[in-house]
Amino acid sequence: MLYEKSFKITKVSLKLKVSNTMPDTRDNQVQLTDPVKKHNWKHRCIDLLQLVEKNSSTKEIKGKLDSFRREEEALKKKLSFIEQEIEDVTKQLNETDTGDEDKPINSNILKLYKLITKLTFAIEKPPTDLQGYVAGNSLETFHLDTTKQSKQFIIDHLWQLIYSQLELEKE
Question: Would the pTM count as exceeding 0.85?
Fold first, then answer.
């Protein structure tokens, strides 16, 4: 029993020596969860190991988080580049759409339409006045006002005229 008491005293004095030599900072201190475990070296070592594991897993998580942040930045840059490209293409598309509506139809295109569909347009008319004829076995004329009728109606009407000429040729 005397030996045990002296061992405990030595352990406490050793603990005092260690605590006196270590600087008092948060990094060097291990918070014990249970005050009863204060004098038990086994529990103190377990707590130290848990702290080391926590720090290493924290470093690993921080590394992954940093790589995710870098990846996020790269994806944001790609997204902004793609959005800029979409905006540029949309502007170009709008410019070409408005430009084509105001221009009169090229005579070469009209000749091509005439050869394929037997549809002839009057060229000297204003753009809002669509006139012409479909020549097959018979002659059918058309006169349409583009401001009063929809584009779809005009297209359907012209295709109907072309179809009727094809039906007459079959007979």
Answer: no
DSSP-derived secondary structure for the chain: -HHHHHHHHHHHHHHHHHHHHS---TTT----S-GGGGG-HHHHHHHHHHHHHHHHHHHHHHHHHHHHHHHHHHHHHHHHHHHHHHHHHHHHHHHHHHHHHHSPPPHHHHHHHHHHH-EEE-SSS-TTEEEEEEESSSEEEEEEETTTS-HHHHHHHHHHHHHHHHHHHH-
pLDDT tens for the chain, residues 1 to 171? 444 444 444 444 444 444 444 444 444 454 555 555 456 778 788 888 787 777 777 777 778 888 999 999 999 999 999 999 999 999 888 887 655 555 566 778 878 878 888 888 887 878 788 898 888 788 889 999 989 999 999 999 999 988 888 887 776
